[in-house]
Amino acid sequence: MRPIAELMFVDFMGVCFDQIYNQAAKFRYMFGGKAVTPMVIRTMYGAGIRAAAQHSQALYPIFTHIPGLKVVIPSNPYDAKGLMIAAIRDDDPVIFFENKVLYAVEGDVPEEPYTIPLGEAEIVREGEDVTIVAIGRMVSMAEQAAASLADDGIEVEIVDPRTTSPLDTDTIYESIENTGRLVVVDESNPRCSLASDIVSLVTQNCFEHLKSAPQMVTAPHTPPPFSGSLEDLYVPDPEKVANAVRQTVGQGVAS
Amino acid sequence: MTEAEVAGARERHGELDKAALLDAYRTMRTIRDFEERLHTEFATGEIPGFVHLYAGEEAIAAGFMAHLDGDDYVASTHRGHGHSIAKGCDVKGMMLEIYGKDGGICRGKGGSMHIADLDKGMLGANGIVGGGPPLVCGVGLSAKVRGTDQVAISFTGDGGANQGTVFESMNLASAWDLPVIFVIENNGYAEATAQAFSSKGIDIAKRADGFSMPGVVVDGHDFFAVHEAAGEAIRRAREGGGPSLIECKVNRYYGHFEGDAQTYRADNEVENIRKEKDCLMLFRQRVTSAGLIEESELDKIDEEVKNLIDEAVKEAKEAPEPTPDKLLTDVYVSY
Ligand SMILES: Cc1ncc(C[n+]2csc(CCOP(=O)(O)OP(=O)(O)O)c2C)c(N)n1
Ligand SMILES: [Mg+2]
């Protein structure tokens, strides 16, 4: 069987976390390669709908952290289908993160089945000056920022990893070799996040190519607030992304 | 207060004298008006987030809370407005909270699903189904260790009753004789899932047997039935007799959340319940036909409650949202 479970909000994972991280994630290794756990868990993440602290978190770093789990975070409808079919056919346990705000996004999706390999990033936009690595819904924030930055003559390259475990570091490093500058946009909290992970990987592996300090654009180190006026400040937006990009090219404005 | 005075005050809580009956009616009426008003206001699009209404289930909150003091504890659910009002939370503060305003009972940071007032023993509505029972084990253990006669009540739905946290909490409370009451509000559905689909169909109260605690079923529309069962369990808990499980069979009048199309419900399901079993209607009939209270006295409460809710909504709409600096406050006590 290839079960697909839909677990609603990722915030609810707490009540079944053991089954995921101590059981499913570990069977294969602990049993000396004898087990397969070809399961997909779908879950919703992200802020932006006034759902407050227990229904708005972006907890994918926690799952990315755990060896044995694969983590998929599509940014658009086409990828969602291809990645889902790949996740189902994959023999490892996959946590499939769906940003709840993205459900309203429309896009062309072929009728027939197709797959997008897990662990293959996509270059969403090409550019020479700065690389933005953006996760899930943050890809669209990066695209909006890139459009406004282009008006100012800053050409941004956007990398959408599509899966955070495995992570396509090759594509990220190649992009950095070309641009020498990095901004990571990650909707989760900043500590031990995808942003801090990717910044650290790039710093270790591409140090000689870096022309400026990598920047992270994330939610603050707080739970998601309820009130709209605060939640709108919580989620990274195109302006914050553009600001971070300007920092990397030495045109930083105080935020 | 001396210990004797506290004990005396507690005694009186159980008694249904006229003042207590009027209080209970006011509580139920306030919850009903609060919820019905939210139902109409939500439809205008002005209220953010998820709102789960308690209308139809008021007799349960009122029946239990009539026995409690401010220092007793309650852990609620996502459907928490009724428990909060009955436990004494400020109605205007709650309304401001639901509108996401700075003056809200949680400063606009929690919203409908996280209304809490720890000074009132209200440990919070809860966004996590099955989140409450472990909390009451905690405060129940604390009360026991400190040697007080406080009790703690958790409310859980029929859906939530199937969460592991609930079973684990019942086991622990029983093993340690904690002063805890597990209330199951069985309204027949968990979101769109009928209870028969998710469990075998026996009364949830029967599960108490497995934990060697008393378990009873009561009609959750009947304030008096709830009040009586609650009184017995609470007295036992205060006296060191350990936990109880009380299943209240009830109905919710609105959708799971506001905006729920309710395609899973029969056509006249709610209409019929409202006609035959409405808790406010039953209460009114009972107290007036017994000659305990005049219709006019209840009408007066209706009027006062209506004004309160009007004012609460007006103030909530006009109140300011939190300022940006609040985003970063209250994550820790110190850091
Ligand atoms: C751990 C967890 N799982 C799922 C949910 C989503 N959810 C919210 S309310 C609900 C149904 C609860 O039904 P019940 O316990 O019967 O309470 P009712 O809504 O009927 O009052 C579900 C599944 C949640 N909030 N938390
Ligand atoms: Mg229910």
UniProtKB/TrEMBL annotation, chain B:
Alphabetized UniProt keyword annotations: Oxidoreductase, Thiamine pyrophosphate
Gene Ontology biological process terms in this record: pyruvate decarboxylation to acetyl-CoA
Pfam short name (any one): E1_dh
Gene3D superfamilies named in the record: 3.40.50.970
Domain Dehydrogenase E1 component: 27-324
Xref: InterPro entries: DH_E1, PDH_E1_Alpha_Subunit, THDP-binding
PANTHER family per record: PYRUVATE DEHYDROGENASE E1 COMPONENT SUBUNIT ALPHA (PTHR11516:SF60), PYRUVATE DEHYDROGENASE E1 COMPONENT, ALPHA SUBUNIT BACTERIAL AND ORGANELLAR (PTHR11516)
Record's protein name: ABC transporter substrate-binding protein
Taxonomic source organism: Rubrobacter marinus
Source organism phylogeny: Bacteria, Bacillati, Actinomycetota, Rubrobacteria, Rubrobacterales
